Amino acid sequence: MRQISFDIDVLRTFTTGIDLGSYAKAADRLGRSTSAVSAQLKKLEEQAGAPIFRKAGRGLALTEAGQTLLGYARRLLDLNDETASAVRGVELEGEVKLGLQEDFGEALLSDVLGRFMRAHPKVRVEVCVARSTELRERAALGRIDLALIWEGGTPALNGERVADLPLCWIGPAQDAAGPVVSPLSLVLLDAPCLLRDLAESALDSAGIAWRHAFTSASLSALWAASAAGLGLTVRTPIGLPASLRIINPQETGLPALPLIGLSLYRAQTTAGPAVKRLEELLLQAVHETIRRIAAA
Prior knowledge:
By secondary structure, this protein is α/β, with parallel strands linked by helices.
């Protein structure tokens, strides 16, 4: 059987069109004509040996083979880009100080740092896991180079909104959804906490009584307390443990929760090559995580 070698450029066109929701937009993004993009996709289907698109109304959707190809295409592109970075930047040196909230520890940290350190072993990365207020202050003072922070309003001058994610009611995975019991038991981080304020405000507006059943400064403690049935908590889907599940407000009478902004803060100094490369990988990982959440 003849071995197939997929074209990296074609795979990049394929994934870009999926990410943007349009291959016309992908053509603009990649600087190609729409006819060239169509030819690339036809070539990809020929290489795959199976249809990768199907009609869905006026547009296109992925077939099962297309979904499988998309997953592998992302992995191949990640490895290709990591290889190119390692070859070009093997001498990259210095130090990067990264700030994250606990939500991103397992969801992003191991993948991003693993890829970065394999490509740039001479760079030292120092990670600070803390609450948003502390991370914002550290970035403003130049004590960290990059920080991912939950934000309700407009970012400060050294911050940039990179995504908006849904806030969700979260409870034990094994419990069936049921109507709200008053007062509603809550498991939340200690004040001050933006997500805590948003949850309480939503309940107050809906006229639902609530009480603090458990508070802690640790997100992992919140996960454990909610999984044990002490009460509901409120977070985004990022980093959600298998012991917990998202609760549909329409099934329980809970109020809908707003979106929450995710901002990237930078130190107010000129970033070096190592900082810029880690920022690039970090944003790639954030957007990939959001794509997985949207698909789920």
